[in-house]
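To: structure subgroup
Subject: Chain for Friday's discussion

All,

I'm putting the inputs and outputs inline so they're searchable in the archive.
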Amino acid sequence: MSKGSGRLEGRLAVITGASRGIGAAVAQRFAAEGAQLVLIARTVGALEELDDAIRAAGGKQPLLVPHDLRDLDGLDRLGASLNERYGKLDILVGNAGILGPLTPVGHIPPDIWQEVMDVNVTANYRLIRSLDPLLRLSDAGRAIFVTSGAASGRMAYWGPYAVTKAALEALVRTYAAEITKTRVRANLLSPGPIRTAMRAAAFPGEDPQTLRTPEEITGLFVDLAEPACTKNGEVVEAQ
């Protein structure tokens, strides 16, 4: 992790799904840009490895929050804890998501459907509900949520993932419309094909070396996270 230009110096950022893939890359880039991080993921060991990497590169020691987003009530407690500790929040990155089964809609078990909905949509609603008051206390609160081209609903067998990403886009656009007169801005980022474990699971025959790495798109997250960003309610696509 090389040092950035300090574009996020003094900013406090929460990142979900931080232990690997896009989340881990964004965490390291934000740390390089000077941000103080609150990192949320299920895997304690992976969070600790990321913590080591960030500190070894000269970043501020992050706050590690091992948490399964399916524990929705726990996200309410997160807001209270951050308020007590920091009194505000500058950046929220809702990155965590699960693929779910690639199968005909009629074959999806209800419990699996609900799990994908909980992680990809409801957890982000609960994060907004919990953290919006803290974002409003920032001089420039910024919320970024990771979406996908699958939200178009034109891909057979991608039902749970496609539906949840479409719902996430509607959720964030609604939230963005509600905060136009505040100092908070909320947007979506569609990374496109990226070399991640989720992509490998979805396209097992694909050569990962033909794909961009997560590190290659972190600049877009910085653009949407910094105070100078004026976008609101947009889907930004990585080119």
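Points worth raising on Friday:
Residues 6 and 210 are 31 Å apart (CA to CA).
The first helix runs from residue 21 to 32.

D.
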